[in-house]
Write a structure and sequence with these properties.
This protein is of the alpha/beta class. The protein has 12 helices and 11 strands. It folds into 3 domains: about 10-60, Orthogonal Bundle (434 Repressor (Amino-terminal Domain)), CATH 1.10.260.40; about 60-160 and about 290-305, Rossmann fold (3-Layer(aba) Sandwich), CATH 3.40.50.2300; about 160-290 and about 325-330, Rossmann fold (3-Layer(aba) Sandwich), CATH 3.40.50. The chain has a 6-stranded parallel beta sheet, with helices on both faces. Strands 6-7-8 form a 3-stranded parallel beta sheet. Helix 7 (about 130-135) links the parallel strand 3 (about 120-125) and strand 4 (about 140-145). The longest helix is centred in the first third of the chain and has 16 residues, at about 75-90. This is LacI family transcriptional regulator.
Length: about 350
């Protein structure tokens, strides 16, 4: 018969593991090494431990809520992130609190204040300072989403550099283009910084001159329209516009078509993300597909199962793969089905 007197903390002490590890073994969730699982199961069997489900839930979560911190919520990218994150939170019966900092000067203090109301926080890369992330991690579990945090703060992100190198190389080699313009600001955005690095790497690999500096604009469609106005009015105009995300690329597409240019005959345009609309516009947008929902879902899972036990918690950082998606905006026939 189960011993209702022994507690999860005593089982953890007897097995020489954390309370969270005992919880993961008894729930059958999360990553636990074979040796730790054996020790926990032996302690449970020897003492007849049976977890109190209500007590365990109350002990695991003080608030029953997790936080999600973004600079803002404009565009399909953030919609996908929220849906992926919320799907895992709902599965765990936790609510989601969303904080938009709008990159104000008090962003750090806003996020630290949020930690008082939630059991863990996901922060989009580049939204708050590393010092704030370190302070936050001392209070609640923290995961950096789509970026890299300071040492000791785990991250979940998609591969950016190699994918952008592949896309850029495709334009340079398969299409023989040379005047390529990059649109997006690497400053303050880990994703854009890595994509810019990939764009440069493709030129270096082919022993081509360094590309011009990026046209530093935002990541919304209106920024793409502005980019088209600036880039396509000059001489010589670029042969291709490589955008840091799909929203910007769609704005460039609108601006180019509005000037009477044909895509891809007169100008090539590419994006990054593979937002759903990218396959629906004409011409379809050549881009890089990243698993946006899975990024957020994996981040939520890591927060919801976080512990202070680094031994069995798996790798600190998660890097998800991306995939080049060829459509007609680069001059190729489409090779995927939306």
């Amino acid at each position: 018969m189960g011993n209702s007197r022994i507690t999860v903390r005593e089982i953890a002490r007897l097995a020489g593991v954390s309370v969270a590890t005992v919880s993961r073994v008894s729930n059958g969730t999360g990553q636990v090494s074979a040796e730790m699982r054996r020790r926990v199961l032996e302690a449970i069997e020897a003492h007849g431990y049976r977890p109190d489900h209500l007590g365990r839930a109350l002990a695991a979560r003080k608030h029953g809520a997790v936080g999600l911190v973004f600079p803002g919520l404009s565009g399909p990218y953030f919609t996908e992130l929220i849906q992926g994150f919320e799907s895992e939170a709902v599965r765990a019966q936790a609510s989601v609190h969303i904080l938009c900092t709008h990159l104000r000067e008090d962003s750090d203090s806003q996020v630290l204040e949020m930690a008082r109301r939630v059991d863990g926080v996901a922060v989009l890369g580049g939204t708050v300072s590393d010092e704030a992330l370190r302070q936050l991690a001392s209070r609640v579990p923290v995961v950096v989403l789509a970026g890299v945090g300071p040492a000791g703060v785990p991250s979940v992100r998609a591969e950016n550099t190699a994918a952008m190198t592949e896309l850029t190389r495709h334009l340079l080699v398969e299409h023989g283009l040379r005047r390529l313009a990059f649109v997006g600001s690497p400053d303050g955005s880990p994703d854009v910084s890595e994509r810019w690095a990939g764009f440069q790497a493709a030129h270096r690999e082919l022993s081509l001159p360094d590309p011009d500096a990026p046209l530093r604009l935002g990541l919304q469609q209106q920024d793409g329209v502005l980019a088209a106005e600036r880039l396509l009015s000059g001489q010589p105009a670029p042969e291709a516009v490589v955008c840091a995300n799909d929203e910007t690329a769609l704005g460039v597409l609108v601006g180019a078509l509005g000037r009477g240019l044909r895509v891809p005959q007169d100008i090539v345009i590419t994006g990054f993300d593979d937002a759903p609309i990218s396959a629906l516009v004409s011409p379809g947008l050549t881009t890089v597909r990243q698993p946006v929902r899975e990024l957020a879902a994996e981040t939520a899972r890591r927060i919801l199962t976080a512990s202070d036990d680094p031994i069995d918690g798996g790798p600190e950082d998660v890097l998800l793969p991306t995939e080049l998606v060829i459509r007609h905006s680069c001059g190729c026939p489409a090779t995927d089905n939306p």
